[in-house]
Design goal:
12 strands, Surface presentation of antigens (SPOA), elongated, 11 helices, four-stranded antiparallel β-sheet, eight-stranded antiparallel β-sheet, alpha+beta
């Protein structure tokens, strides 16, 4: 039936008393609606939403600094979709950024953004104003988007390290165009039937007001919640006491039969061999006395008034603290060819610790954090006093 006009076949079917099926539904299975509450509890949904909210909140700050635009990311919404039905939910051309966790967590995360929005981000990264972007993304445009997403996911990994109270690191993101309707770029989608979709509303100034999505397997989402709740550590602690039971205590050697020793002198050998085994068994069964270690008390060196005054003079000397993100070498020709929007690749990977220098002397390593609207650095490793003195020479 089309345009409310019955065809001849439909008229004959009505005359036979048959029920007409709506057009386009005959022989087609109905899409199964997946209720996320059947797979994730309310607590698990809240935990995943909070992880996404905190991690992408810091990503918005990093993206804002890159684009020179105000970036807002709203509270995420969670849903569960089937991999086979992605063509019904993703009808536009997209850009997919695949991220693998290499430390702290084990899994794959796919960041999906509309191709039109990615074109605006690429135009801003390359020095444009974002009002007339090129919809056809070339290699340089994809590289610009990849760098923006790299900074976002690096900032997100730093925030997740704080959330999970352990170091979380990622591999360099890989980027590709994804058009599910044309079966393009689908190899980057996690090979799991049920996927969790975390949707954020992304606003970049007045240029972008769209959705940015995360896709990751349901199993990975459950692992995130378990790690957040500390269940993995609790299981490890529970299994630890059972380890000593795997080695049974030594048993005494059986005595030789009397008929194998016709002379009296060889018969004393089994008794001599049994005694050490019995002694060892008694030693194992004796309780172990554990005492606290005692250390000599530490006393600060005493300074006279003149020495104390001299030290106070040193404490007021200002020092310049520098955080070095990375370095690179370029030829004079490459330097002269630089212009606004040029991208310089450094010798450090995303998420790798940065160097902290005092008066241009290396003293520590740290990781970049975001405090309100400002960047900061958290010291993760500091050189020993001897190494610091050697660097000053």
């Amino acid at each position: 039936m089309s345009d409310n006009i019955l065809s001849q076949e439909e008229i004959e079917a009505l005359l036979r008393g048959e029920t007409l099926e709506p057009a386009g539904t005959a022989g087609e299975p109905e899409n199964e609606v997946i209720n996320i509450n059947d797979y994730l509890s309310e607590m698990e949904q809240d935990a995943l939403g909070e992880v996404g909210n905190i991690s992408f909140g810091s990503s918005a700050t990093a993206l804002s600094a890159l684009l020179g635009q105000k970036v807002d990311i709203t509270t995420p919404t969670l849903s569960l979709i089937q991999r086979d039905n992605l063509d019904k939910d993703f009808v536009h051309p997209y850009v997919a950024i695949k991220v693998e966790y290499t430390e702290g967590l084990s899994g794959v995360n796919l960041l999906v953004i509309k191709q039109s929005d990615a074109a605006i981000i690429a135009d801003l990264m390359l020095g444009g104003d974002g009002t007339a972007p090129n919809e056809e993304l070339s290699e340089i445009h994809l590289s610009a988007v990849q760098e923006a997403m790299n900074q976002m996911m690096g900032s997100s990994a730093t925030s997740m390290s704080t959330i999970f109270n352990k170091k979380v690191d990622i591999s360099p993101p890989t980027i590709d165009l994804m058009n599910i309707q044309m079966d393009q770029g689908t190899e980057n989608i996690p090979a799991h039937n049920l996927l969790i979709r975390v949707s954020f509303n992304l606003q970049v100034g007045e240029l972008i007001d769209s959705d940015i999505m995360q896709l990751f397997p349901l199993e990975f989402g459950k692992k995130l919640v378990s790690s957040l709740m500390g269940e993995e550590e609790a299981a490890t602690v529970t299994e630890t006491p059972t380890a000593p039971q795997t080695s049974p205590p030594p048993q005494p050697e059986p005595a030789r039969p009397a008929e194998t020793a016709p002379e009296p002198q060889p018969m004393q050998a089994p008794a001599q061999q049994t005694a050490p085994s019995q002694t060892a068994q008694q030693t194992v069964q004796q309780p172990v006395h554990v005492q606290q270690a005692e250390f000599a008390s530490f006393q600060a060196p005493s300074l006279n008034k003149e020495e104390s005054n001299n030290l106070n003079l040193l404490l007021d000397i200002p020092l310049q603290v520098t955080v070095e993100l990375g370095r690179t070498k370029r030829s004079v020709k490459e330097i002269l060819e630089m212009s606004g929007g040029s991208i310089i690749e450094l010798d450090k990977l995303a998420g790798e610790p940065v160097d902290i220098l005092v008066n241009n002397r290396y003293i520590a390593k740290g990781e970049v954090v975001v405090i309100d609207e400002n960047f900061g650095v958290r010291i993760t490793d500091i050189l020993s006093q001897m190494d610091r003195l050697n660097n000053l020479r």
